[in-house]
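User: I'm putting together a small comparison set for a docking exercise, and I want a reference complex before I start. The sequence is below, and the ligand is 6-phosphogluconic acid. Could you produce the 3D structure with the ligand included, as structure tokens?
Assistant: Of course. I'll restate your input first, then give the structure tokens for the complex.
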Amino acid sequence: MNLRIFDTLEELTRAAERTIRQANPTSVALSGGSTPKPLYESLGKSLPENVTWVLVDERYVPHDDPQSNAAMIERTLFANGIPERWLPFRTELHDPALTARELEREWHDLGLTNLDLVILGCGDDGHTASLFPGTPVLEVEDRIASEVFVPRLDQWRVTLTKPVIRAAKLRIVLATGASKAPILREVREGVQHPIAQATSGFETWWFVDRAAAG
Ligand code: 6PG
């Protein structure tokens, strides 16, 4: 595990932004959640050009719902305009399975193969993307995207699959706050939480603050 520990969220954000700009990616998958917001705001001030942006996962809610990951990204990273090549999950289809297939269709239409970069978060339960512990999506190996019902949240999600995340050139995981410390410790000890299944053995840089580092 390539672990970088920062004293402040500002330093973490600056370092993650530098890493992304230096990687000069042509395709980037973006997680939702709260941790990447400052990074997206900063990166969005001068959005890298000629990039295909893909959403990592989505809560199955309408676009104008406060939980929508796509809307959060459009308000922050894309505050100055939505780029031409942006693949959100189309929850307006009102059918999670169809939405996952539609993302796969758009993925193939754009000629996407492996991603250059995936920006991930990590849940207190060890999930990443919408790959939640104990859900069948963890077994999916032959799809780009999949729907998954998450009983713990009583919510449908749509997500890129584990093989897509593993096949990317580089993974960046952002984790802040003391609630992430136990999972980070267990992942370092080799526990196969979903975040470990999606990243272990593949080049992954963890950007964490002192509280998450434990
Ligand atoms: C989502 C995410 C999810 C997220 C983690 C961490 O839709 O919630 O894509 O995988 O990255 O839950 O979330 P926080 O950054 O809010 O802690």
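Residues 31-35, 56-57, 59, 69, 121-123, 127-129 surround 6-phosphogluconic acid (CB under 6 Å). The mean pLDDT is 97.
User: Thanks, that's exactly what I needed.
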